[in-house]
Amino acid sequence: MADKLLRGVTLKGLEVFEALARTGSVAATADALDMSAPAVSQQLKNLDAALGVDLIDHSRRPMRLTPAGRLFLRRVETALGALRAGQRDMTALDLSGLSALRLGVIEDFENEVTPILTERLAETMMSCAFRLHTGASHALAAQIAKRELDIAICAAGPQTPQHTTTHPLVDDPYILAVPRGTDVSGGLGSFSHLTFLRRDSDQVMGKTIEAYLARSGLSLPQRFELDSNQSISALVAGGGGWTITTPLSLLRAGRFSGGIDAHPLPDGPPPRQIVLYATDDWRDEVPSQVAMIARELIEAHFTNPGIEAMPWLAGRFRVAT
C-alpha cells in the first residue's frame, strides 16, 4: 500500500509545490528553481495526479493552495526540511580549525534564528573563541567595515562595507501596519486621527521610510521616534498609531499581533534586503554555509509563516535562492 501511495510523487515535484506555495505563481517558481514554466506546470500536474487531489487553486492570482494543499504543505515542509538537514549534515560546516569567529546578527532574528544558528556553529567550534553581537543593522555594518566582526547578518545599506563579500538572504518588503479594523481605502493621508510612529532615523529602515514619505509628499508630525520594534507594535495594536514596517518586523509583534492589520504599501520603496557580509579574509566556504543555514531558518520561522498569514506577500517576501 505504501508503494502505491508514493508512486508518482517525486522530490522535484515536492520542491516545486513548496516553491509555488511561497511565490504564488508559476513564473516566479520557475525563476526561483531555474526551471521553465512548462516544466513547473507539468510537475504540479503530475503531483496532483499522483495524490488524486487538486493542491492549487489556479483560478486565483496569486495562486492559492486548496484546503488539501495547505494540509499537504505542512507535511512537505517537514519532509524537505529533514532531507535538507540530512544533506547539511553530510557536508557539515567544519569550524574545528578556527581560532576565533566574531559574528554579528540583526536584532530581528534574536529569538528564532540566532539561537539555532549559534548552536549549529558551536557544534564544530571545539577550540574556537566565539563572540556573538546583536544589534541594529547600521551598527553591525559599521563594525564589519572596521573589521571588528568577521561576519555580519544585517540589512543592506546604500553602500556595501569595504573589503567585504555579500551573500543575499531574504527580501523583506515594506508594508503598512494599522490598528485592527482601520479603513485604509483613503490612502496614507486619511490617517490624520492616528499618530505616525517613526523608526529611529539612524536605522536603515528609518532612513528608507523617511525618503518614501518625502517622495510621497507626506509631512507628518514628529511625535514618536522609536528604535524598539515591540514598542511600535504595542502602540499600533493599542489603536493610537500606525507605521510602515516589514514582514520580518511585524512577525516579531508576538502578543500584539492580534491588534494589527497589515496591508500592501502603495508605491512602496524596494524591499529591505537582509544579507550576510563577510570580510575578504573569508574566501572559503564558511560564509556560504553560514548563509545557507540562515536562509533555511529564515524560511522556516519567517517567510513561510508570513506568506501563510499574508498571502499577498507571495513572490515578494522571499528567501534568496
Mind explaining what this structure looks like?
Residues 1-5 have low confidence and may be disordered. The strands form three sheets. This protein has a six-stranded mixed beta sheet, sandwiched between helices. Strands 9-8-10-7-11 form a five-stranded mixed beta sheet, with helices on both faces. 41% of the residues lie in helices and 20% in strands. α2 packs across α3 (26-33), α2 crosses α4 and α3 (26-33) packs across α4 (37-51). The protein has three domains: 2-90, Orthogonal Bundle (Arc Repressor Mutant, subunit A); 100-170 and 272-319, 3-Layer(aba) Sandwich (D-Maltodextrin-Binding Protein, domain 2), CATH 3.40.190; 175-264, Periplasmic binding protein-like II (D-Maltodextrin-Binding Protein, domain 2, 3-Layer(aba) Sandwich), CATH 3.40.190.10. A hairpin with a 6-residue loop joins β1 (56-57) and β2. It has helices at 2-6, 11-23, 26-33, 37-51, 67-90, 113-122, 137-145, 204-215, 229-237, 247-250, 286-309; strands spanning 56-57, 64-65, 100-106, 129-135, 151-155, 164-172, 175-179, 195-199, 224-226, 241-245, 260-264, 272-279, 318-319. The longest helix has 24 residues, at 67-90. By secondary structure, it is α/β, with parallel strands linked by helices. It is globular and about 60 Å long.
Task: Produce the secondary structure layout.
Elements: H1 2-6, H2 11-23, H3 26-33, H4 37-51, E1 56-57, E2 64-65, H5 67-90, E3 100-106, H6 113-122, E4 129-135, H7 137-145, E5 151-155, E6 164-172, E7 175-179, E8 195-199, H8 204-215, E9 224-226, H9 229-237, E10 241-245, H10 247-250, E11 260-264, E12 272-279, H11 286-309, E13 318-319
Parallel strand pairs: 3-4, 3-5, 8-9, 8-10
Antiparallel strand pairs: 1-2, 5-12, 6-12, 6-13, 7-10, 7-11
Helix pairs in contact: 2-3, 2-4, 2-5, 3-4, 6-11
